Amino acid sequence: MTILSAYAVSVEKADTPESRSKVKGEAALKSSGVPYTIFRASWFMESLPLFVQGKSMSLIGNQIHPLHWIAAEDYTRMVSKSYQTDETLNKELYIFGPEAYTMGDAMKIFASIAAPDVKVSSISTKMLSVMGTLTFNMEWKSMAMLMTHYEKHGEDGLPDEANHLLGAPAITLKEWCNKRYSQPVNS
């Protein structure tokens, strides 16, 4: 059995409902007796368009940690290959893309290629949480909590074992943007 977890999952870092669920899920899988592979992936490039709202791309919080952005295409290739070998069984594998960018830098690269008329703007996690409370918008409150988690926690672990067993991810953020968005998002 395989599960997609996150790059910073541990009892010490379980400070959100999502991270606590991942810790519990991993523990349940490990204790089940079923052979498993846990993939602890960094941020997916495919999540970047989700931050675009009209002509703005919202950087939520002070996201200072460099992240190795991964293309879903590389990730799915690695997961598929894991089913072809027993060497990945009962392991936690860190899946990191070939380059590291802060979230803000990744957003700027994405916007410059995929949505040149979009500006990256910042909002603090505290402000988003307050706005969510005042407007009864639980999605905003939840996003503020999640992004506060990522403000505190950078990538854990090393991708060396996963890269050795499954082949290293190769798609760069600029390549992904150029391939996927030969026409800008807002065209």
What would your notes on this structure say?
The protein has 187 residues and is α/β, with parallel strands linked by helices. The chain has one domain: 3-Layer(aba) Sandwich (Rossmann fold). Helix content is 42%, strand content 16%. A hairpin with a 2-residue loop joins strand 3 and strand 4 (56-60). The mean pLDDT is 90.
State the share of residues found in helices, binned by percent.
Answer: 40-55%
Distance separating the two termini: 42 Å
CATH-defined superfamily: NAD(P)-binding Rossmann-like Domain
Strand residue percentage: 15-25%
CATH class: Alpha Beta
User: Which outline best applies?
Assistant: globular
Describe the strand arrangement of the main beta sheet, using strand numbers: 1-2-6
CATH architecture: 3-Layer(aba) Sandwich
What structural class should be given to the helix and strand makeup? Answer: alpha/beta
H-E string = EHEEEEHEEHEHHHH
Mean pLDDT: 90
Total number of strands: 8
Overall number of domains: 1
CATH topology descriptor = Rossmann fold
